């Protein structure tokens, strides 16, 4: 595939560690790396060094991970200058001349706003200002980024609706699926050792367990159905692991490699998304929704906007918020999955959903905004736009 981006490098600034969870950035940037150099600049690691330095390594997807190391004793007033020097060092040492910048975190502007890329892209996959432990200045930096970006993507439709009025070139690009990867779970796969002895029926979840996960709901549905087994796969972040509900029928299996997820999915009778309904989940668009469906698993979710529309409206996912309704929905959807027409509807809906198509759309939009005439034309009116956050964040 020729995206016409292969002559330019892509410098990415992210708040997410590449090796944490394989998600939207990894899917998209792995595809970019087939055609151009991709530098994935992570947040700094403190300690393990006396002087600021960079460590580069290449992933199996050909993405170059850039990890800045800073001394643990560095003063906050010195940190920004050190990060600017490290970015400049990367540009110089790797001969990054013709390039675009993609931001996953606006906080990186503090040490990268001096750069002069061909295009500035903001892939706004979440409303980061609503997340637990978000920096107090994140809204200010997002305001600045929206004022300088040539192109903005959102990770879901509800986030697009909230922000479409604050940028001249913003596009909804909901996360997609690797259908082949997850559809493996429809077959008979070798059961992982830590799941094989868990009885059925199994109701499963994989993902990050943080402030977006409704622990109270999990405890209540586990108590209502002691003969149902609830399998939780994923790392615990930003919450005390001691607060996790402990029941004989709740099984925490920890973080798993992306490639192992179909092995776990294959052994589930139903998938669930018991998200809390709070500021952190107001605009989320869970990638796991189409992944669960591609695996041929019925799904029950709390009332997340980007799950209700389209999946709830299409009768592909059951929506429930109370413990009693959640259990009823699990029972109903496990019965419905036995009907061949349910899986036919799933496959019909998912047939045009792929990371390749999402990547191609985003790459073509980048190519357009890299055109000097386009940038001059849009930037003339860009500065007259007042960026505000009334209700959006």
- Kindly name the structural category: alpha/beta
Major beta-sheet overview = 9 strands, mixed
Rg, Å, rounded: 22 Å
> Which CATH top level class of the largest domain fits?
Alpha Beta
What distance lies between the first and last C-alpha atoms, to the nearest angstrom?
37 Å
CATH level 3 topology of the largest domain: Rossmann fold
Instruction: Quote the beta fraction.
Output: 15-25%
- Count of folded domains: 2
Low-confidence stretches: 381-393
Number of strands: 15
Order of helices and strands: EHEEEEHEEHEHEHEHEEHEHEHEHHHH
Number of helices: 13
Summed over residues and divided by their number, the pLDDT gives a mean of 91
**CATH superfamily annotation of the largest domain:** Glycogen Phosphorylase B
State the share of residues found in helices, binned by percent: 25-40%
Seen as an oligomer or otherwise, the chain set is single chain
* Architecture per CATH nomenclature, i.e. the level-2 architecture of the largest domain: 3-Layer(aba) Sandwich
Which term fits the overall shape?
globular
What are the defining features of this structure?
alpha/beta, Rossmann fold, 13 helices, 2 domains, 393 residues, single chain, six-stranded parallel β-sheet, 15 strands
Provide structural commentary:
It is a single chain. By secondary structure, this protein is α/β, with parallel strands linked by helices. The protein is built from 13 helices and 15 strands. The protein has helices spanning 24-32, 76-93, 138-148, 157-163, 179-183, 215-224, 261-265, 288-294, 305-312, 323-336, 340-350, 355-369, 372-382, and strands spanning 9-13, 38-41, 45-46, 53-58, 64-70, 99-103, 119-124, 151-154, 170-172, 202-206, 229-233, 250-254, 270-273, 299-301, 318-319. The strands form two sheets. Strands 1, 2, 3, 4, 5, 6, 7, 8 and 9 form a nine-stranded mixed sheet that branches. A six-stranded parallel sheet has the order 12-11-10-13-14-15, with helices on both faces. Helix 6 packs across helix 10 (323-336). The radius of gyration is 22 Å and the shape is globular.
